[in-house]
Design goal:
By secondary structure, the protein is an all-alpha fold. It is built from four helices and no strands. The chain has a domain at about 40-115. Keywords: Coiled coil, Membrane, Transmembrane, Transmembrane helix.
Length: about 140
């Protein structure tokens, strides 16, 4: 048996101590004030004063406006890309429809197909070529 393994088994044999949870203390009013006082100190006495915040307000509003314009621009760009993809799919479908209709028209306009269609109406295909009618100018 491994020497290190024996040491681990000896340690595992002993009973495990039970852990007890430490009781929690409720925060006192002073501790609550300390967290609030940091924020109030920061705005009143620290880096940002009321005058500095008031002076920076137009710039912050401008930055917020720029952020909204940026978000709107990206929204419109995504919508345009979606619309372009949709229109490309529609163009592809219409192109296939055009090609299939053109092929059908070419097939139906063949002489044999036209003859089959008009045969039901009682019209026959000419066997002899057409005759040319000549009218003299003095007969007219």
């Amino acid at each position: 048996m491994n020497r290190f393994r024996a040491d681990i088994e000896e340690e595992e044999i002993g009973p495990e101590p039970e852990l007890k949870a430490a009781p929690k203390k409720p925060k006192t009013a002073e501790e609550k004030m300390d967290s609030n006082s940091f924020i109030s100190k920061l705005f009143n006495d620290g880096l940002v004063t009321k005058d500095a915040a008031t002076n920076a307000l137009p710039f912050l509003c401008f930055l917020a406006l720029l952020g909204m314009v940026y978000i709107a621009n990206s929204h419109f760009a995504v919508n345009n890309v979606r619309r372009i993809d949709k229109l490309n799919k529609e163009v592809k479908e219409l192109r296939w429809e055009y090609k299939s209709l053109k092929a059908d028209l070419m097939f139906k306009s063949k002489l044999t197909e036209v003859a089959k269609k008009v045969d039901t109406l009682g019209i026959k295909e000419l066997i002899e070529p057409p005759k040319k009618i000549i009218v003299k100018s003095d007969e007219y």
